[in-house]
């Protein structure tokens, strides 16, 4: 008899997370403690439960720009080494307790230099935190590997510097590079120099595209910039039409994305909050999965969305009647798409993911 598909059991299943923002995943209580310790006095509440509610409500804004405003408070307390180490360590422990076995967690070093840290000191603090958190998780019986993605902000002009930092730290658990922030008005080609540098260095990168702006953003990310993966990518459905009988017709860009197995880092709850999707049940992940795009499931911002990998998967099970096979498919897709050497990806699939799901199906 397969195990029941409820949150408690889904939590025990091995999961892989490719799209999670460090500054979008703080524990509310930690945010309050750090604000007090660092003299940050602009928090909307100093009660953990109320603060969590404030984030979830404010992020439920119908626009990416307003959603992003909530990050002022998290970034506001992440300006010194100790705070960064603590947030990164708790991130690794929280993901591990949620059953995540491999994660690539992103953050923008340039946002954490307000109190004088150098960019590389930000990176080192976060990596030290991930390592400490992973050790603590292992001691608590959960094995996880957490690696970093360095993000550059698309409205700013530091992408080349951040890309160079990602390459400099590539052998110390920095898996790759990303750009994030408001999408409309800030096309990825603004950062072509960074992407060309990364390609010359044989380095990996993902680009937030097709979340708050449509197909041109996805097209530029892939065909001008050369992205390995797409952050969100939900708007690729604009290039798919469905006939009355249910058959799908793919435009050239959608066909390219599917043919080349371009990984889509989908974040259902976040997309509903920013109005990139109407509801979980109407989220494009349903049709994209049916059409066998390389879909992965992610959290984006656990604090703002009040979610976890477990809750996102449980919500999809509820909306689309997914089975354990489907959850394993998402997980293997994500592992295949990780910025990790091929042999290590295979080992995690064969030694951790497949046996984990086999046990739940038995
Ligand atoms: O869904 C998203 N789309 C675009 N940008 C985002 C999203 N979530 C977070 N960030 C931005 O990425 C920065 C670094 O982690 C965050 O500070 C936030 O501004
Ligand atoms: Zn994101």
TrEMBL record:
**What GO biological process terms are annotated to this protein in UniProt?**
adenosine catabolic process; hypoxanthine salvage; inosine biosynthetic process; nucleotide metabolic process; purine ribonucleoside monophosphate biosynthetic process
Co-factor note (free text): Binds 1 zinc ion per subunit.
EC number, as in UniProt: 3.5.4.4
Instruction: Write one Pfam family the protein is assigned to.
Output: A_deaminase
List ligand-binding residues for Zn(2+).
Answer: 19, 21, 208, 300
InterPro entries this protein is in? A_deaminase, A_deaminase_dom, Ado/ade_deaminase, Metal_Hydrolase
Which keywords does the record carry?
Hydrolase, Metal-binding, Nucleotide metabolism, Zinc
Q: Which positions are annotated as binding substrate?
A: 21, 23, 181
Which reaction(s) does the protein catalyse, per the Swiss-Prot or TrEMBL entry? 2'-deoxyadenosine + H2O + H(+) = 2'-deoxyinosine + NH4(+); adenosine + H2O + H(+) = inosine + NH4(+)
Residues at the site labelled Important for catalytic activity: 232
Where does the record place the Adenosine deaminase domain?
14-354
- Catalytic residues in the record: 211
Required cofactor names: Zn(2+)
Q: What class of enzyme is it?
A: hydrolase
Q: Which GO terms describe its cellular component?
A: cytosol
Q: What are this entry's molecular-function GO terms?
A: adenosine deaminase activity; zinc ion binding
What the entry lists under NCBIfam families is as follows: aden_deam (TIGR01430), PRK09358.1-2 (NF006847)
Give the family from UniProt. Belongs to the metallo-dependent hydrolases superfamily. Adenosine and AMP deaminases family. Adenosine deaminase subfamily.
Q: What does the record give as the function of this protein?
A: Catalyzes the hydrolytic deamination of adenosine and 2-deoxyadenosine.
What protein am I looking at?
A: Adenosine deaminase
The gene name on file is: add1
């Amino acid at each position: 008899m397969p195990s029941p598909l409820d949150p408690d059991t889904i939590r025990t299943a091995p999961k892989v997370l490719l799209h999670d923002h460090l500054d979008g995943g703080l524990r509310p209580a930690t945010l309050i403690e750090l604000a007090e310790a660092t003299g940050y006095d602009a928090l909307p509440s100093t009660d953990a439960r109320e603060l969590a509610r404030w984030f979830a409500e404010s992020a439920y804004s119908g626009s990416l720009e307003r959603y992003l405003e909530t990050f002022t408070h998290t970034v506001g307390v992440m300006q010194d080494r100790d705070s960064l180490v603590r947030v990164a360590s708790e991130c690794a422990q929280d993901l591990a307790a949620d059953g995540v076995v491999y994660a690539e967690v992103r953050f923008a070093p340039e946002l954490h230099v307000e109190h004088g840290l150098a960019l590389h000191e930000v990176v080192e603090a976060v990596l030290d935190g991930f390592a400490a958190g992973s050790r603590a998780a292992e001691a608590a019986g959960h094995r996880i590997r957490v690696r970093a993605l360095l993000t550059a902000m698309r409205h700013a002009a530091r992408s080349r510097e951040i890309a160079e930092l990602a390459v400099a730290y590539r052998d110390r658990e920095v898996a790759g590079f990303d750009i994030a922030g408001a999408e409309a008005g800030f096309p990825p080609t603004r950062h072509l120099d960074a992407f060309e540098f990364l390609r010359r260095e044989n380095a990996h990168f993902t680009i937030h595209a097709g979340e708050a702006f449509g197909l041109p953003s996805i097209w530029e990310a892939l065909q001008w910039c050369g992205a390995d993966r797409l952050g969100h990518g939900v708007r690729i459905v604009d290039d798919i039409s469905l006939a009355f009988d249910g058959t799908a017709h793919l435009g050239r860009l959608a066909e390219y994305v599917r043919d080349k197995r371009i990984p889509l880092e989908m974040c259902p709850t976040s997309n509903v909050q920013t109005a990139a999707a109407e509801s979980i049940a109407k989220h494009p992940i349903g049709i994209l999965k049916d059409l066998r795009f390389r879909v992965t499931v992610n959290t984006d911002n656990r604090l703002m969305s009040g979610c976890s990998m477990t809750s996102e998967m449980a919500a999809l099970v509820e909306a689309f009647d997914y089975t354990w096979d489907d959850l394993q498919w998402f997980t293997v897709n994500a592992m295949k798409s990780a910025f990790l050497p091929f042999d290590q990806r295979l080992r995690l699939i064969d030694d951790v993911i497949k046996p984990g799901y086999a046990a739940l199906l038995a």
